[in-house]
Amino acid sequence: MEIVEDVVIVGGGVAGLATAVALKRIGVEALVLERGEELRTIGSALTLMPNAWVALDALGVSHELTSHLYKQK
């Protein structure tokens, strides 16, 4: 079986997935390759610079992150 995509993205991290979403919105099909077999929480931190928030806002997903930032535990 042959799979034909416009773009291949190596890595399903924040940058890879954001790139795939942005490309999809402009009509470009992307194949995301990730070596991990499943999504998992690994206990790491994520630092986002102001430009990253601008990009996430443009993708329409920044509200998802900010809602988790201010949750009371």
Automatic annotation (TrEMBL):
Q: Which InterPro entries match?
A: FAD-bd, FAD/NAD-bd_sf, MOase
Has keyword Oxidoreductase? yes
Query: One GO molecular function term?
Result: FAD binding
Positions of the FAD-binding domain: 6-71
- Please give the superkingdom of this protein's source: Eukaryota
Does the record bear Transcription in its keywords?
no
- What Gene3D superfamilies does this protein's entry cite? FAD/NAD(P)-binding domain
Q: Which residues cross the membrane?
A: none
Keyword tags: Monooxygenase, Oxidoreductase
Question: Which spans of this chain does the record mark as coiled coil?
Answer: none
The family annotation for this protein states: Belongs to the 3-hydroxybenzoate 6-hydroxylase family.
This protein is called FAD-binding domain-containing protein
Task: Tell me the classification of the organism that encodes this protein.
Answer: Eukaryota, Viridiplantae, Streptophyta, Embryophyta, Tracheophyta
